[in-house]
Amino acid sequence: MVRLPGAVASFGQATVAGSVFVGSQNGYVYSLDAQSCCYYRDYTASAGVRTAITLAHLGSRDVALFGDRRAHVYSLDVATGKTIWKALADDALSAHITGSPSLFEGRLYVPISMGDDSAAVDPNYECCRGRGAAVALDVLTDRQIWKTYTILKRVPAGRIISVRSSGSRRAFDLVVTDNRCEAP
After folding, report:
1. Does residue 5 lie within any of the structural domains?
2. Are 6 and 22 in contact (CB under 8 A)?
């Protein structure tokens, strides 16, 4: 059993170059030695990391790509643990990323969800102001190429929880959404 310092829940492990990468609820992405499972280093994100870690070889380096619970997207150098770039995928207060980013032909497709659900139990909370989205970022620069929402304006809407690419000639083959959010 591996103990991760400060973590009570971990998510989405991926392996490259002899290292296993694991996100956690405390905002750390841990790097472990794949053979011994010994703790190697960690990276501190702005919030919890529930996404799987997407690994890629870009140019001369291996990178780890993931999102956090405050809708930031990260690109890390696997060898050094240093940030290559960090981008805010959506600035809505309740925006977060829990689905795994998907890389295809130099674009990183990122699913964005909204987290109004739990706050909606407060009768004074203006429910369901967020809306789900999918964002395409240039994987080398973090430049936003496009963004599309589940609906056109901010009214109760569903969330995008996953984007997947099969490696076909299309950018992505599947976008998964879940419940429509609205006040009772």
Report:
1. no
2. no
